Amino acid sequence: MKINRYIDHTVLKPVTTVEDIKNLCMQAVEYDFAAVCVPPPFVKLAKTFTAGTTTKVATVTGFPFGYSAIEAKVAESVLAIIDDADELDMVANLIAIRGGDWSYLEKEIATIMPIIRNKQRVIKVIIESGILLEEEIVKCCELYARYGVDFVKTSTGYAEKGATVEAVTLMRKHLPANIQIKASGGIRTFAFARELINAGATRIGASASVEIMKQAATMQ
């Protein structure tokens, strides 16, 4: 298992610095990670540090709580694309999920998807599985499958509960094979990352990526 190609090496803390981004990108290039995931103001900088490599640049929209207006998520998506982000991790409207307002959620994703597809970007929809009921996770999978998102993602890392094997297994069961799963939130060991991949995750979001790689070198 080439675990490095599963990893989105991530820093999203609110006090992220230029030095943090430089270090993140240098590590990502060294280990050939799939992507770096950075705050929106750092997309352009991350692109310069990863230029000429196979490491993509991802950023977040509607982060971390998901309750931004649709118009705000549109603006964030457009700006991320202008800054040349390759992948956008968008937090779904969690208030709407918990409130059962599926028509709002459908309007949200229907508005965002043409922007993503027109510019041939990748979208990962974050549903915050750790705080949802099973039936809410299933409904999310069904909705986002209809709109052909690239990934459904477990977590932002800001909720009290992050990725679990159970959530990934449930998502894999209710998503078509062409829609991938990104597991994130609380993934700090190679053993846990491998469990999530075995359950169906095809991308791992982590800030402990280098430590995961060190552990992988001793366990594989």
Q: How would you concisely characterize the structure shown here?
A:
With 220 residues, the protein is an alpha/beta fold. The protein is built from 9 helices and 8 strands.
**SS strand fraction:** 15-25%
In the predicted model, the low-confidence regions spanning at least 5 consecutive residues are none
- Total beta strands: 8
The CATH level-2 architecture is identified as Alpha-Beta Barrel
Q: Give the number of domains.
A: 1
Question: Key terms for this structure?
Answer:
eight-stranded parallel barrel, 8 strands, globular, DeoC/FbaB/LacD_aldolase, DeoC, cytoplasm, Aldolase_TIM, Deoxyribose-phosphate aldolase
Description:
- The protein is of the alpha/beta class and 220 residues long.
- It has one domain (3-219): TIM Barrel (Alpha-Beta Barrel).
- α7 (165-174) links the parallel β6 (151-153) and β7.
- It has helices at residues 18-31, 43-50, 70-82, 94-99, 102-118, 134-146, 165-174, 190-199, 209-219; strands at residues 7-10, 35-38, 56-61, 87-91, 122-126, 151-153, 180-184, 203-206.
- α1 packs parallel to α2 (43-50) and α3 packs parallel to α5.
- It has nine helices and eight strands.
- The protein has an eight-stranded parallel barrel, surrounded by six helices.
- The chain is globular.
- Helices cover 46% and strands 16% of the residues.
